[in-house]
What does this fold into?
Amino acid sequence: MSESAKLFERALHVTPGGVHSPVRSFAAVGGQPLFIESAHGARLIDADGATYTDYCMAFGPLIFGHADADVAATVHAAIDHGWSFGAAERWSLELAELITTRIPWAEQIRFVNSGTEAVMSAVRLARAATGRPLIIKFAGCYHGHSDAMLIEAGSGMAGVPASGGVSQATASETLILPLNDIAAVAKAFTEHGDRIAAAIIEPLPANYGLLPQTDAYLHELSRLCRQYSALLIFDEVISGFRCGFGGRAEQLGIEPDLVTWGKIIGGGFPVGAFAGSNALMQRVAPAGNVYQAGTLSANPVAMRAGLATLEKLANGEAYEKLKALSEQLHRGLQHIPHVSVTQHDSLFWLRLTPGGAGEMPEPPRAPGQIPTGHATSYPRWFRHMLNAGIYLPPSPHEVGFLSTAHSSDDIRALIAAVASMPPA
Ligand SMILES: Cc1ncc(COP(=O)(O)O)c(C=O)c1O
It folds into this structure.
């Protein structure tokens, strides 16, 4: 029995499903999860001493790869000066100034501990600012696990809980709409416009595979929000600081009313944030009456890890390297007949195409457009790649992440492993 399997057996006794976040359990790909002992650059080493090239990259925060030397040096230095003050400190100020200078419409920012907290707080703020109860959410977008966001499409637009413990009353205040369907948004505003506080969307949906929305769709969504005086919340927990420093908002030329960040903003430490105009953010306590707080918020070590990461991203060099890797991956994969890939910047999503369709002319833009069979063929795919020493995300609906620690040799090995996958 492998060491990972032994550890998992023990973990099952003391933790639900043996893990502390569901997707880590390998439930979607079968078998037992690998227990990771260490990670450097693009590599993971598991409890049995096996090495893998990592394309999951902790689900997004590690844009410079594991244990980046600059972030590590900063964190080591920080630790010697204490790691939690519960008091004001300079590092969150510097990180806030860096972000608000580079992204001017984000005039004020509040740091929290996770993307979930960021979204939960932004939704509360949107309701307070508009005095309205309803939130539009799109099926297939994930915004963390606060009650209001754990709602899936039910019959019509009335939300039904996607998790035990979410009340019907909460669900009824989240309107679920299909992605990529502007008519559905217009209809929701026509019917409920004076009760809609905000629409929240991942401007690059990356939690049900990668489901890019057209620029025209996102601009029209923004316009409709303004027309009905509802707020637009861009959840850039994945796309923020990855699709360029200013995220998808900058790429699109859209200024959302509120943005939520996570992952890269903490350099791999637990940080989330929400930001917006002075007028909106002044409603947050203690300046205003929208309560939000956290014992460990703006933790000085996490703030310095975030600062080291964002300072390194600010000159744009990392994005150039990632672009080159992403283009190499695209070129290498596009002629493999049994594979489809959707890519945006340093995010990619691989699918087996049983019919041999190769690259699809149009990527899926909503969960219903994902070819059936992807989820069932993915476990075989995942195992094949693992045997080739490549660690993909352990779920058919999670995207792959490139980091600057990946080399073009790594990408060549990834392409070769994909090419050697037997057709379905
Ligand atoms: C777009 C998006 N929003 C929110 C979250 C929740 O963030 P966290 O896991 O840090 O709570 C995630 C997590 O993957 C996410 O991808």
About this structure: The first strand starts at residue 36 and ends at 40. The domain at 69-313 is CATH 3.40.640.10 (Aspartate Aminotransferase; domain 2).
